[in-house]
Every structure is written in structure tokens, then in C-alpha cells.
Amino acid sequence: MIASRLTLAAPLLAGACVLGNPDFDGASEGGTSEASEASASTSASASASASASASTTSTSSAGATTSGGASAGGSETGGASGTSTDTTGGASATTTTTTTTSTSTGTTSGDATTTGDATTTGGEPGSLTIPADIATCVLKAANGYPHLGPAECETKSEAENGGAGALIFDTSFVGQGGGGRPSRILIRFAIPGSLAGKTISAVGLDLRTTDHVLAGGYRGELKRCEPFDLVSLGSAAPTFVEDLAPSGPWINQSTPVHWDLSPSLPIPGEALHLSYVPVDTDGALYWGQKAPNPDYRPILTIAYQ
User: What does the pLDDT read at residue 162?
Assistant: First the structure.
């Protein structure tokens, strides 16, 4: 419960800016080639010379952007299974263009919406850092209160956090007019089509709690869910498809949270939809897509060869 936590936190907050009561329980291929030129001249001395030059350049670019447009609702069921690992370092997300270079006579660059950079030579290993293209929350209908979509949920979360970019994570959010409704954090990643034909060897997901004094809380359950977009989330939370990782121990404020996921989870050229589900009334706050520091936004890291 948040009441006892507020009592303990009060001396820490004395003399500082007073926040609102955080009342929540606790990738067209194109190619050009220039034909080789040859010139020959013959003289009386029967000397001959020939020169030829050839230059071939090929460039291809590929992009893959996928968004799930299906609106999904219904019951959410399933226990959680799997493994998860906490980290003590900060998550790093850099929005750049995927670049692949080979030792043959070609250079390939693919723009995978918002992907990290990856460089390979031939079949050597590489990696991608992919920021989420959606990282938001919803409040599910409960206690006579209606479902609230991303805009409303983010507004209440930011008021609770005292700053922009936060997402509430609670089984019964009563602060800011939450009405005791359970929240969901919904995250979507666009998996680049440039990964097709490569062997994915490792997948990691990183989130981070905010720096609010009461942002800590128990790790929730991570699930793969039905496709969603911001429009569909305005009417319902998506149903669960697969349990990915169980709930876990307490996470402090301003702390990275890491999961090692199955390499079979990302499908090149498709979107990966995840639902992060709270398991405790002692609510937490996580950074979303609008976190002031890009390094704190949800990211997916894919290692491949």
C-alpha cells in the first residue's frame, strides 16, 4: 500500500517541489554499370597496348515498417513462465539507420523505421538496437469506470509522476481519478526485414523505472499479445497470445529492467507486440516512448549472424 510508503518518503520530500499525491497502490534495388572500354593502336614496330577498366556498383535499400492495426479485446488469461534477469546498467537506445557492408563489390543500407546500427562483413555476427515505435499504457474498465486509452492513461501517469513520459503500472490505480482500474503497458517493435536470412542468436528487452521517489514496484508478467495500434488501444487492451516471462522481485526507482527473450520471437518484416502486466497493488512508474532521455525508452536488442 502506498500510504506507508508516503509516510516514509515525507521527510525526503520536505522542502522540495510538492508533487500531486502519488495515490496508487503501491528495406528497390537499382544497379548501374559502366562497360569496360578498350582502345588499341598499331604501329610499324608492331607494338600493341590495351587498357580496360570496369567499375560496377550496386546499391540496394530496403525498409520494413509494420504496424498492427487490429483492434483486439477480450479476456486476458495465462500464467507466466520463462526466465528474466535484472541489470544494473542503463539501457541505451540510439535511433539510426541499419547499415550492412560486405567485402564484395556492394554496399547495402536498409532503413528499418527506427533501428539501431548494425555492421557485418560477410556472415559475421552483428546486432540491432530497435527503439519501440509504440510504448504507452491503458487503464482497463473496472469498478464501473470505463476503459481509458493511451492519451488518458499517459496524462494521468504523467500527473502521478510529476513529469512527461511516464507510464503507470498498477493492478489498482486510484490516483489522479484512476478509479482502481488496472493498467497495462503496451510496447510495439518494428522488426526490420533486413534480418531475413540471418540467424538470430539472442534477443533482449530493456525498460526502466522513472526517477520518482515512489516509482519502484514489483516486476510484472511479460506477454506477447494480439496486434494493436494507438487507435485500437483507445477501445480495449489486446488479448494475450503467449507468456514470455514471469513476475519477479522488487525493482527500485530509476532502475533498468532487462529480459532475455527467445531468439524465435522476432519475425523479420513483422511487428512484435508485447503487453507488460502488473501483479501488485503497490504501483510502479516506467518510462515510455516519450521519456525525456531517449536512453530510458524501451528498446529491443537483436544479435544475429
Answer: 85
